[in-house]
Design a protein that fits this description.
By secondary structure, this protein is of the alpha+beta class. Helix content is 34%, strand content 27%. It has three domains: 276 residues, no CATH class; 59 residues, no CATH class; 119 residues, no CATH class. The strands form two sheets. Strands 9, 10, 11, 12, 13, 14, 15, 16, 17 and 18 form a ten-stranded mixed sheet that branches.
Length: 474
């Protein structure tokens, strides 16, 4: 088996060069940044699986004399210790008296707020732990080689691993890991806003669970992976602040391993599928653009994949689970159904126009999987709710009009679209999560066939907006 080694020295050079470049930029900005600051407001909160949740901290930093002072409060849910250690409606509040903050620390924070966005993680933040990146890459390569890839694929894997050891590809893989790695019952939220004498302000926030709470976003949605901001923020906060330890804590080798392994996950899955099920992979790529793919499950012989139409709407996708038999698809005809579903959505003119007008929204379908397929019960609800809206009365007498129709979900709190085979589209309803818009009636959520995911009640806002085959709203 090939062994991929000799990375530690190269990775140290990557870190050293990154540090040098960063310091070079910093040395150019020597003018004081604090003279125009009138106020810094910091909210540093956390919620999660803890009886004292949420933990809330609110801090204000203002100029005083020749320096700055911080004051504020920290609180958490009060717990009665007797007799049942029960949660109460009260909160334990700690008032922190005014305390000095070094001018240099405030200056560093303001500079970090004003710095241009950093698109990837600076690998230098891992310090000596970066030496372990090569071990993680080696482990991944060895797992792939154990599957006995073809000679040509073997060379591609080795070339990929070699490239991954370079500065920018390595930083990009780690950044992907930091962006996508998540877990449950842990919800930090930190926000800092600086106000200036000219009336302007700068604000950044993060709800990330990862190192330094990366990434951070400003009010315009620009994202940065710079550790300078959270480290500078930690430097002005008192020890009691909720997330101070996470803002300042250096990532461990284990964290680096997890981020890098997660960041390599997409490439690993692509290689694994090509080794284990090369004919299935070739069939998919001959007809679709693969947007996301999971490794073949060697126990269930199932393959989860997300695809889109080559040359079709870039924000339209379909996710499904395909059965694998040996190196090929167990049911190749399933690809026909996927193609029909995607084309139905892409050629429903009103829906297509919505995709074009909201390019940052994802429009997704789940084909024979998940909890929102357009099954018989969902179709009956659609007919009923459209009748209540006095729209599409022909559905009651011509149910075949829904043959081949598909549900498309738009956005995070989804808007549900129904695309018909005759190129009409219906903006059916939206999951509101309690945020009801006046002018639209509330209605039941989409029914699901799985008993574990049964309807929870009136959680949707019905629109019933119909678009004809030309895309005109009726």
């Amino acid at each position: 088996m090939d062994k991929v080694t000799g990375v530690a020295l190269g990775l140290r050079w990557v870190a050293a060069l990154t540090i040098a470049a960063t310091c070079s930029v910093c040395s150019k900005a020597t003018e004081p940044a604090t003279s125009a600051v009138t106020r810094l407001v910091i909210d540093d909160d956390w919620g999660g699986l803890n009886p004292t949740s949420p933990h809330l901290a609110h801090w204000v930093i203002e100029p005083q004399g020749s320096g700055f002072v911080l004051s504020g409060t920290y609180s958490q849910q009060h717990m009665e210790t007797e007799p049942h250690y029960s949660r109460t409606d009260q909160r334990d509040v700690t008032n922190v008296p005014a305390q000095p903050v070094p001018t240099a620390a405030v200056d560093a924070l303001v500079r970090a707020l004003r710095a241009p966005p950093q698109p990837t993680v600076d690998t230098a933040v891992f310090g000596a732990a970066l030496d372990h990146a090569g071990e993680t890459i080696d482990e991944t390569v060895q797992r792939l080689m154990a599957l006995n890839p073809s000679p040509a694929l073997r060379q591609r894997i080795l070339a990929w691993a070699t490239t991954l050891r370079q500065g920018q590809p390595l930083a990009q893989a780690i950044t992907v890991g930091v962006t996508t790695d998540s877990h449950s019952d842990d919800y930090p939220h930190t926000r800092v806003e600086a106000s200036f004498a000219d009336g302007s302000s700068l604000a950044f926030r993060s709800g990330s669970q990862n190192m330094f709470l990366l990434p951070w976003s400003d009010a315009s949605g620009h994202t940065t992976f710079s550790a300078d901001l959270p480290e500078a923020l930690a430097a002005v906060l008192p020890p009691t602040s909720t997330n101070r330890g996470r803002l300042a804590g250096k990532p461990s080798p284990d964290e680096l391993h997890d981020y890098l392994e997660t960041g390599m996950g997409e490439d690993y899955a692509l290689f694994q599928v090509q080794i284990v099920a090369p004919q299935a992979y070739a069939a998919l790529t001959s007809r679709f653009t693969i947007r996301d793919i999971n490794p073949v499950d060697m126990t269930s012989h199932g393959l989860f994949v997300t695809v889109s139409l080559p040359g079709g709407p870039p924000n339209l996708s379909l996710r499904t689970k395909l059965a694998i038999k040996g190196p090929a698809l167990a049911k190749p005809s399933e690809l026909d159904g996927m193609m029909v579903a995607l084309n139905t959505a892409a050629t429903a003119t009103g829906l297509h126009q919505a995709m074009q007008s909201a390019p940052k929204d994802d429009f997704r379908m789940e084909h024979s999987i998940g909890i929102q397929p357009f099954h018989a019960e969902a179709k009956q609800q659609f007919v009923t709710q459209m009748a209540q809206a006095h729209k599409l009365p022909e559905l009651a007498t011509h149910p075949h009009l829904l043959d081949g129709a598909v549900i498309v979900m738009q956005g995070g709190y989804p808007t549900y679209w129904v695309a018909l085979r005759d190129h009409r589209a219906v903006r059916w309803k939206r999951y509101i999560n309690g945020n009801h818009t006046t002018g639209h009636r509330l209605c039941a959520d989409v029914p699901v066939p799985d008993e574990d995911w049964r309807s929870v009640g009136i959680t949707d806002e019905c629109f019933g907006q119909v678009y004809d085959a030309a895309g005109k709203a009726l």
